[in-house]
Amino acid sequence: MSKSPGNEFIDGVKAELPILVGVIPFGMIYGVLALQAGIPADQAQAMSAILFAGSAQFISAQLIHLGTSPLLIVLTAAVVNLRHALYSASIAPYVQKLRSPWKWLLAYLLTDEAYAVAITHYQAGDLGVSADMSARQEPPDRADYQHWYFLGAGLALWSVWQLSTAAGIFLGAVVPDSWSLDFTLALTFIALVVPNLRDRASLAAALAAGLTAVAAMSLPYKSGLMLAALVGILVGLALEKRA
Length: 243
Hints:
Layout: H1 5-36, H2 41-50, H3 54-65, H4 70-80, H5 83-95, H6 100-109, H7 112-136, H8 146-171, H9 183-193, H10 200-215, H11 223-242
Helix pairs in contact: 1-3, 1-7, 1-8, 1-9, 2-8, 3-4, 5-7, 6-8, 7-8, 7-9, 10-11
């Protein structure tokens, strides 16, 4: 069944909605922490619009509060965001035929949450194309518009992130510390990962990466995250090769 760009866009927004429940308090927490770190309200909001990377924004705010040098802040944020290179490599085959403005826009909107929704949709489209091709030897039109799905998911997340950041900036003083809203970050990533653990290799990769992240959490500059990602990839590849 073929779909229009508008339908794909709306479907992308709908797929992102459950994840946004956890993003809202996460954005509010960032707004609160940014103000506590001494970042002016307009600059804190601009960081959400320009950088648009939750983990990097949290770490940058903490480092600014500690008076860390700008160069070290930039390097730390870059290390934390290196995982996006893995996302880009994974999703590149599906967007390589798009024009440059589309690639630039989707690259800007590429986040953990948007990637999880988009790559699942792309992979489901691959299965649909294979089944449909075996039946009538014609590719569905839907494949031509799947980047609109990606756009819908990414823009939904971007919009909510800006609004939640603004809410945290202007209402943060009212939120008591006892609420401990930061637990929602872990819940968001759990909701992203668990549905994609469909075989032994992916389950082993997730377990290996999780254990490594816990064991290496004391490493400087959050480098334990990249080490965990590398270990997870190697374990997953090794099991797939054996299979």
